[in-house]
């Protein structure tokens, strides 16, 4: 069998004729169509999370300028923003229990259900307490996607498309946030709440109709027939295919090797798991210190404070259009440049953008002259560079680096640490700005991104164009012969 066909998990075996190339193209198309169907629900889940992320930027402004159903103080607004991160902590615990017991598909179904609850409570809110509970629900829903969305994609995708599919989820999330940024400032508070329910409902339908259970989960549960059937649906071919059975055997061997490590504690004590857990968890858990999440939550408020030649709402829209465009470019670069290079370049750009904005706010120049473009330009540099790596790559690395036996514990643990970091950053952002000047939080973000460049170059391994079996072998210090998945 040709390597081109084998890499895509193809099930047809064309002979050595002129039709081989066209058959390979048809086989590749079949794989893509099968994977598109199974991952459509995950993509819409990402869009739903993006809508929930973008809600705060314009909704908080409405609730502070008396155009909402009630008014928020600055302290209440900070709780509305930061309780989303507490919800991520709670959701990580909940989804961690479901992930191993109920399976990947059932776990993913929790996300749209929780986000529908968020939208309903937000619509019905008549006091801050409603929003506090709603934001806990939205955070819990996001945790399901953030922790296990990339894990699911890594387990069901072929090697050549794994990076692209993972980054497409980031693009869908940004599209959801962009929808809120473009529509939110110009509609009523309650209409904006309904806007959050639509993609969540669509995600629920797509997950129920098309999402296939992960073959890795079925192999871990000793359900070989179901595993083979699921893999056939994911590859768009017959269960009788030799290539499909080869891939199924490799999945079973990978799962069996990890079982042979003994208890979960023993697996985590192995050098490979220890290195993977250290790198993956550090990159994921410290991601809020890049500054992107708090920037998006307070985008309009930041432009009100720093000034912009455009209006604050229009500047926020420009920011997110640039971010989505950069994420689209990243889909073409992640499997060409590699995860490590993209993350390094991204953090360097983040550092420059945040340092320039911090210096501008610290100098307090005349904001009516030519320098008034600096805040928008520096934030544009930041969101573009962040979208090229710091936003999408940490989740992808975590999904690729953690062995199967470590995922049920380490994936939610990393998201719990992420939520604690994000809560601290969101809650302290305005307080630090008021106490030390608004330049201070941006200086902290710049310093952390500089440290992230050094950490990435020193410790993060490259995983591009490697199957999950090869990644685990690389971390264990051995080469894996099989090339499937």
TrEMBL record:
<dbReference type="Pfam" id="PF00083">
    <property type="entry name" value="Sugar_tr"/>
</dbReference>
<feature type="transmembrane region" description="Helical">
    <location>
        <begin position="39"/>
        <end position="57"/>
    </location>
</feature>
<keyword id="KW-0762">Sugar transport</keyword>
<feature type="domain" description="Major facilitator superfamily (MFS) profile">
    <location>
        <begin position="34"/>
        <end position="464"/>
    </location>
</feature>
<feature type="transmembrane region" description="Helical">
    <location>
        <begin position="106"/>
        <end position="126"/>
    </location>
</feature>
<feature type="transmembrane region" description="Helical">
    <location>
        <begin position="438"/>
        <end position="460"/>
    </location>
</feature>
<feature type="transmembrane region" description="Helical">
    <location>
        <begin position="132"/>
        <end position="153"/>
    </location>
</feature>
<feature type="region of interest" description="Disordered">
    <location>
        <begin position="1"/>
        <end position="20"/>
    </location>
</feature>
<feature type="transmembrane region" description="Helical">
    <location>
        <begin position="193"/>
        <end position="212"/>
    </location>
</feature>
<dbReference type="InterPro" id="IPR005828">
    <property type="entry name" value="MFS_sugar_transport-like"/>
</dbReference>
<dbReference type="InterPro" id="IPR036259">
    <property type="entry name" value="MFS_trans_sf"/>
</dbReference>
<feature type="transmembrane region" description="Helical">
    <location>
        <begin position="373"/>
        <end position="397"/>
    </location>
</feature>
<feature type="transmembrane region" description="Helical">
    <location>
        <begin position="409"/>
        <end position="432"/>
    </location>
</feature>
<keyword id="KW-0472">Membrane</keyword>
<dbReference type="InterPro" id="IPR050549">
    <property type="entry name" value="MFS_Trehalose_Transporter"/>
</dbReference>
<feature type="transmembrane region" description="Helical">
    <location>
        <begin position="77"/>
        <end position="99"/>
    </location>
</feature>
<keyword id="KW-0813">Transport</keyword>
<dbReference type="GO" id="GO:0005886">
    <property type="term" value="C:plasma membrane"/>
</dbReference>
<feature type="transmembrane region" description="Helical">
    <location>
        <begin position="165"/>
        <end position="187"/>
    </location>
</feature>
<protein>
    <submittedName>
        <fullName>Facilitated trehalose transporter Tret1-like isoform X7</fullName>
    </submittedName>
</protein>
<keyword id="KW-0812">Transmembrane</keyword>
<feature type="compositionally biased region" description="Basic and acidic residues">
    <location>
        <begin position="1"/>
        <end position="11"/>
    </location>
</feature>
<dbReference type="InterPro" id="IPR020846">
    <property type="entry name" value="MFS_dom"/>
</dbReference>
<keyword id="KW-1133">Transmembrane helix</keyword>
<dbReference type="GO" id="GO:0022857">
    <property type="term" value="F:transmembrane transporter activity"/>
</dbReference>
<keyword id="KW-1003">Cell membrane</keyword>
<feature type="transmembrane region" description="Helical">
    <location>
        <begin position="342"/>
        <end position="361"/>
    </location>
</feature>
